[in-house]
Design goal:
By secondary structure, this protein is an all-beta fold. It contains no helices and 19 strands. A hairpin with a 4-residue loop joins strand 15 and strand 16. The protein starts with a strand and ends in an 11-residue tail after the last strand.
Length: 245
């Protein structure tokens, strides 16, 4: 079995990201980091629509299991206010307070912003679409880094499947993957937003410009929220039964 390795320093600068916007509400920042030195952070919610919006904040513990996100009730992070109304053109500041210490591995949470039903006028015969935004919250360890381990195999005539595992103690968010033949041309490029929490795994499928056979050596470049990383991978035989890592 061939594996490609790439380490990512958690202390590296994050990529700048635009605010999240949905249903007339703009939310910034798109990620919250809490530490013992800075246990309180703020979030700005701006209403650019012509109607008031009533929003509820809930914070959940976040882990990943078999490639899926799992949210659980938690009291580690306090959100205040938990329920508020944002009038047209107004801004609401929400605060998040850390109520737990750091650990050997990064702690991960999700704050869910949900619009409360019935706050906006809905014409008869129409269906109301309610706002729901999910923002990650991280509590990093004193010294943390992500360590990505890669496997890859052809899963179709022009398709490659990557099994990616984070063996580090901090998250990594993959924003783009570029696949090339070793010393040759680029065969795939795909933008994405894939989080790998410490100890978690994901599978990613890339469409390629040409067929790739098992045994070929490939160069993989990954753009992440921490740093750009590169790995050399030898394509494996396609597993007979592929379970999510």
């Amino acid at each position: 079995m061939n594996r490609g390795y790439a380490s990512v320093a958690a202390a590296a600068a994050m990529l700048s990201a635009p605010p999240v916007q949905a249903a007339g509400l703009k939310v910034f920042p798109v990620r919250v980091v809490l530490t013992p030195g800075e246990p309180v952070q703020t979030m700005t919610i701006e209403n650019s629509s012509k109607e008031s919006a009533r929003v509820q904040l809930r914070v959940y513990g976040w882990r990943q299991e078999k490639g899926e996100d799992v949210l659980e009730e938690t009291r580690d992070v306090l959100a205040n206010p938990a329920l508020f109304e944002v009038r047209p053109g107004a801004v609401q500041i929400a605060r998040f307070g850390l109520r737990t210490g750091t650990g050997a591995a990064e702690k991960s949470y999700r704050v869910i912003l949900e619009e409360v039903p019935g706050t906006r006028a809905v014409p008869a015969g129409t269906v109301q679409t309610l706002l729901r935004i999910s923002i990650p919250i991280f509590v990093p360890p004193a010294r943390g880094s992500g360590r990505l381990v890669w496997r890859a195999w052809p899963s179709g005539p022009r398709q490659m499947t990557f099994a990616i595992r984070n063996e580090g103690n901090a998250h990594v968010q993959i924003n783009r993957l570029i696949l090339s033949r070793k010393g040759g041309p680029q065969v795939a490029r795909q933008d994405m937003s894939v989080y790998l929490l410490p100890g978690s795994s994901q599978q990613v499928v890339l469409d390629t410009a040409a067929s790739i056979a098992s045994g070929q050596t490939l160069k993989l470049d990954a753009m992440t929220d921490q740093a750009d990383v590169a790995a050399e991978i030898v394509a494996e035989e396609r597993p007979r039964e592929v379970a999510r890592p």
